[in-house]
Amino acid sequence: MAKMMDAIVKPTAGPGLELRQVPVPVPGHGEVLIKIHKTAICGTDVHIYDWNPWSAAHVKPPMVIGHEYVGEIAELGEGVTGFHVGQRVSGEGHITCHRCRNCRSGNIQWCKDTVSVGVSRDGAFAEYLCIPQTNVIPISEKLDEDVVAFFDAFGNATHTALRYNVVGENVLIAGAGPIGIIAVAICKYAGARRVIITDVNEYRLHLAEKLGASVAVNVAKEDLKKVMAEQGIEEGFDIGLEMSGAGPALGQMLSNMRNGGNVSLLGLGNKPVSLNMNDIIERGLNLQGIYGRKPDNWHQMISMVEGGLDLTPVITHRFNYRDFEKGFEAMHSGMSGKVIFDWTK
What we know:
Blueprint lengths: L3 E7 L7 E6 L7 E10 L2 H8 L2 H6 L4 E2 L3 E9 L11 E4 L2 E2 L5 H4 L10 E2 L11 E5 L3 E3 L6 H4 L2 H11 L8 E5 L3 H12 L4 E6 L2 H9 L4 E4 L5 H7 L6 E6 L4 H9 L1 E9 L11 H6 L3 E4 L5 H12 L8 E6 L3 H10 L4 E5 L3
Parallel strand pairs: 11-12, 11-14, 12-13, 14-15, 15-16, 17-18
Antiparallel strand pairs: 1-2, 1-4, 3-5, 3-9, 3-18, 5-6, 6-10, 7-8
């Protein structure tokens, strides 16, 4: 008889999640079984909970969700080398083919055959997770597990924030969700001159200030151009990080970039967005879509945290996994940063 475990499952095609008993996965050749210690809620998990159109197009219930986690190796499948039972690890959530042109050139984030943990295969909101050894990331025992639990999101922020050199630059971040807030800390750590973040959520704007934002602007109440003038930003922003997926936010960002400015686009929208192509062309703006993480982002994340980057202020709620509904309630309220689930108790 298969061993059973607790897991948070998307049971059917509709709103909500359930805590269920499901079989413990058995690692196959080249796979590693991880005993989960901590997990974090991602915005993707909220979409799956709500069952929005994106979820309906990508998720096939019943399925264990979740892809932000830290734990320890519980079992090694046949052929696995370089790891040992009891080792602390996390994992890259995008399982790629290793054969296509992008994979072979180091751009695994663009693999056309990507399989996503917790979206297109069983995820980490469970007592155990099984992934290929190629996706396992060793984690130092010195690092705070609550922070490592959201390294997946930290990686999105790192990829977006460090796509362009931010040293001495004025950076505009649109969207004060957890990833936008984390990006504030990264940009400041990496040497940006000014980091200004915009949103309409006062709670999260205040949280962004705790992470080092030069100014957190509520665009429903404040004039961004006035703030720019007060901060000595005369020609426009050098770098823009679009985290909101909202058309108006992107439009405001593009109109306030300096000529030749660079924009990283991470936020996914719910509908198509209209852009002034002539303005983008005539002003020489560079727009780069960002998806997932590059392999080197994991090294950058670990090094930044080991070097003193403190992300603990972005953690606002902690719950036992059995109280997962409280965690999703906090996320739905908009009055939260990262929400952590403990699977060790």
